[in-house]
Structures are given as C-alpha cells and as structure tokens.
Design goal:
CATH topology: TIM Barrel
CATH architecture: Alpha-Beta Barrel
Helix content: 40-55%
Strand content: 15-25%
Radius of gyration: 21 Å
CATH class: Alpha Beta
Structural class: alpha/beta
Number of helices: 12
Number of domains: 1
Order of helices and strands: HHEEEHHEHHEHHEHEHEHEH
CATH superfamily: EAL domain
Length: about 280
C-alpha cells in the first residue's frame, strides 16, 4: 500500500519511477533554459582554433553560447541542447548566439569568428533579420564570419542547406561542417555541400597518438576533407602528443583544451582593457 502511495503522483504511462524522474528533471532544465533565454541570460565563451604549424597564433575563434541560470551559473549544454534543438527556444538560442557574434566581430575588426547554428534556423525570420542587419552595418563582417552546422543538422534538409550556403558564400561567409564523422553524412551530399571547413569529431581525436583505430579513421576523414578542398580542424585536442601527431599527419588546424578552454575573457578583451588603462 505504501508503495502505491509513493507512485500515486506518477502520471499514467510513466509506470517506471526512474524514467519519470529523468523526464521530470529534463522538463525542469528545459523550463529553466527557456526562462533564461527569454531574459537573454546568455553569453559567448570563446575557444581558439590554431594552425597546426603555428600554434601560438589562432587562425580564428569559435564562439560557444552559454546559458545562465538565475544565480548566474552556466547550465551545461549537454543537459538541454538535444531537447531544445527542435523547439522555438532552440531557434532563439541561435538568434542570440548570432547577435552576440556579430557584435563581437563589429567591435574587433581583426577577429575571425565561428558561430554555431542549426539547419532548422535557415528559414527562421528573426535569425535572417539579425544576419542581414549585421552584414549591412559592417562590410568586413561577412568575410570574417564562419557559420558552423553540425553534421546531423545538415543532413536534416541537405538540399535547403546547400542552397542557403551558396547564397551566403557569395557574400563572403564561410561554412564549417561540425562534428564530422559523428553523424550519417551521405558522401553524395558532402560532394554538393561545398563546406569551407570540416571539423573532425573529437571521438576520433582523443588519444589519437596511441590509438591505432583512431589513427586510421582520422586519416580517412582527413583524406575526405582534402578531396573536397576543405580546411581540416581536429576537435578535442587535449594532449601534446596528440597535437604533434595530428600536425605530422597533415591536419590544418587544431582546437581543444590543450590550447585553452572556452573563456568569457578572451585575450582581445584583456588587451583592450590594458590599452584603456595605460
């Protein structure tokens, strides 16, 4: 009887208390994220992408959106990103990321910056207005902006993505295929996409210096990138031996904690403050 009372508040169809607890937690996190996004409690954290042959000078940075709870703490993206991706909240997150990225590019004319987006935002009117307004304000922004689309997202509507990319590439914007190797890209579509940059998923990069399987897979993904004239970036580089191996293999650029964690205090901000106080 006591067990029946304990489960009495579990809705019909949720007879597994563990699954109910997980779904309740997910709803709580999504509600928290939605409220944070509505109040624009977001910021960008920046992580360097460095040339493999000159690792002391970043080629560009990636701006990663961070959503904050009411106390100002970051809500881990892994807790919500897959859930909100298909919702209006996901579209608004893309809008806020683009808005902040464009402002950063406008404020720092020597910077090149990658911003993440979902293929679902391609037809989203607010996102398109933000992009058009940002490009109109500064004619140099287009050639310094990189839009990153994950492999899984690109494959949702490949024909729409290819048309969208061609239109914006004519304006000077570059495109990166994120998490390459983690999804299910049809090589027929990869041939048609014309991505400028391909970012090899970190699962193939971690420990690559000593993992024979990852060495073969990374070399294969590198060969595909070269065949389609894409700049190759290795994600999740965390150890010096992996960085050295990847550079010797011929990867163009490297990104990961070995070169620095994403930070809301990027070096150009510190330089600006130093000049202002000098």
């Amino acid at each position: 009887m006591g067990q029946n009372r304990k489960w009495a508040d579990i809705p019909a169809g949720q007879d597994n208390p563990l699954s109910f607890a997980v779904s309740a937690r997910d709803r709580s996190v999504v509600d928290m994220v939605r409220q944070a996004v509505e109040h624009k409690q977001v910021m960008l954290a920046y992580q360097a992408v460095v040339p493999a042959g000159q690792q002391d000078r970043p080629a560009f940075y990636e701006g990663l959106i961070r959503v904050l709870d009411e106390t100002g703490r970051v809500i881990p993206a892994r807790d919500f990103i897959n859930i909100v991706e298909v919702t209006e909240t996901g579209r608004i997150i893309d809008c806020l990321a683009l808005e902040k990225g464009l402002k950063t590019l406008s404020d720092y004319p020597d910077l090149r910056l990658a911003i993440n987006m979902s293929a679902r935002s391609i037809g989203y009117a607010r996102w398109l207005r933000i992009l058009k307004r940002g490009l109109a304000q500064d004619p140099t922004i287009a050639e310094r902006l990189i839009l990153e689309i994950t492999e899984n997202s690109a494959m949702l509507v490949p024909e729409i993505v290819t048309g969208f990319m061609k239109e914006l590439q004519r304006q000077g914007i570059s495109f990166a295929l994120d998490d390459f190797g983690a999804g299910y890209t049809s090589f027929r579509f990869l041939r048609d996409f014309f991505f400028d940059i391909v970012k090899i998923d970190g699962q193939f990069i971690r420990g690559v210096a000593t993992d024979a399987d990852n060495q073969v897979l990374t070399a294969a993904l590198l060969a595909i990138g070269r065949q389609f004239d894409m700049i190759t970036v290795a994600e999740s580089v965390e150890k010096p031996e992996d960085a050295a191996y990847l550079a010797a293999l011929g990867i163009d650029c490297l990104q990961g904690y070995y070169f620095g964690a994403p930070t809301v205090r990027p070096p150009w901000l510190d330089n600006t403050l130093a000049h202002a106080s000098a």
